[in-house]
Amino acid sequence: MLSTSLVALDSTVIATAVLTITDQLGGFAQFPWLFSIYLLAQAVTVPIYGKLADMVGRKPVMLFGIAVFALGSLLCGLATSMLGLIVFRAVQGIGAGAVSPIAMTIAGDVYTVQERAKVQAYLASVWATSSVVGPLLGGVFSEYVSWRWIFLVNLPLAAVAGWMILRKFTESAPRQRHRIDYLGAGLLTVGAGALILALLEGGQAWAWGSASSLGLFGGGAVILVAFALVERRAANPILPLWVFTRRVVVASSLVSLMVGAILLGLTSYVPTFAQGVLGTGALVAGLTVGALTLGWPLAASQAGKVYLRIGFRSTALIGTVLATVGAASLLLVDAGSGLLQLAVGCFIVGTGMGLVATPTLIAAQSESEWSERGVVTATNMFARSLGSAVGVAVFGAVVNARLGGVDHPAAADLAPAVHLVFVGVAASAVVMIGAAAVMPRGRAADPETHSA
């Protein structure tokens, strides 16, 4: 929980301090890179950490991730320029790429499916608390202390988390050391990084049809094809191709892809709609989308009881249907709607996501042996990162195309543009129903846990 809090807080605490940071360091036009570079570094390293955790154990990979994240936080707190801060955010992202999936993998190792029903409530509470405390801390630090403490506050948290894992977590699972697939890791990092960067910055830093965009998409695709060919012959591939042949893993990853797209679509554009169309302040707009982050952990904390009773597939179907109902209700939101209607729609979507995101991941974990669980978890989380990048790209392109590149659109123009985002979110939720429907029936067996 402490390790997860590092990443959970970091995902929300910086947003409220952007203007304060750019006032001191300059580079306002570059500030989106503070988010993009972090997401990119985190996404491309997740599959590599997952495989390493299956080879050398969870503990060393988790401790490495915490140490790198702490180093990045220290460097960010000492940054003297926007360029330096962007580079140091990449270091943070490299550390975060280990912390998130390995924390979930450890939970899968230590606890049985039945026990994870309760443990998930604890892990969900971390994200719920961070969604409220993060923006508050960011505002307090930037206004009353210094924005640098947004990053420096991670140091004591990282120290305690690392110490507890070092002292309290003991692995006893038999492991065999294999030669690391350096070529596969390099090709995956460069290829996936190029595609995600093209998605994140396309239409913003450069035009979709520009040489930069086409070069990144084309080059990334070619490198990933080369990666697939290398992995077919590798003795110990960094991302085994068997993950794409197991129905439960493919289904859970497709669900995770849609979760990423829906989450980024709503968290990006619900506040914009609340402020630009309904005329609310930034705080109220944030609280409105907060209904999404409230419904999610509340449902996730109860999801265990549901899937133990009716199974993973049925629980996921209920969750996806709920998310679709919530997304459909947002299609009725217009300039004459109230904030309550917008918040209720977000809450229903969040409730559905809480019933589908975690049960589908646990289903995939429970059908995997110890030596596979790290890769399976990392594949699921990589899919969510990819979905987030695709969601940002697609929804941003749709809105910009409708608005025609206007910097300060009028409410009458902004409302129909954001409505198209709500349409995209609803379509993603429908796809999620299909992904949940193809999951295997019944509850997957839970292989014997090997850690204590």
Outline the structure in words.
- The chain is 79% helix and 0% strand.
- It has 452 residues and is mostly helical.
- The chain has three domains: 1-172, Growth Hormone, Chain: A, CATH 1.20.1250.20; 181-237; 246-446, Growth Hormone, Chain: A (Up-down Bundle), CATH 1.20.1250.20.
- The radius of gyration is 21 Å and the shape is globular.
- Residues 444-452 have low confidence and may be disordered.
State the main characteristics.
452 residues, mainly alpha, Growth Hormone, Chain: A, 3 domains, 16 helices, disordered C terminus
Give the topology:
Elements: H1 2-13, H2 18-25, H3 32-56, H4 58-78, H5 82-110, H6 113-144, H7 149-152, H8 154-168, H9 182-201, H10 211-233, H11 247-276, H12 282-310, H13 312-330, H14 339-366, H15 370-403, H16 411-437
Helix pairs in contact: 1-5, 1-6, 1-8, 3-4, 3-5, 3-9, 3-15, 4-5, 4-8, 5-15, 6-12, 9-10, 9-15, 11-12, 11-14, 11-15, 11-16, 12-13, 12-14, 13-14, 13-16, 14-15, 15-16
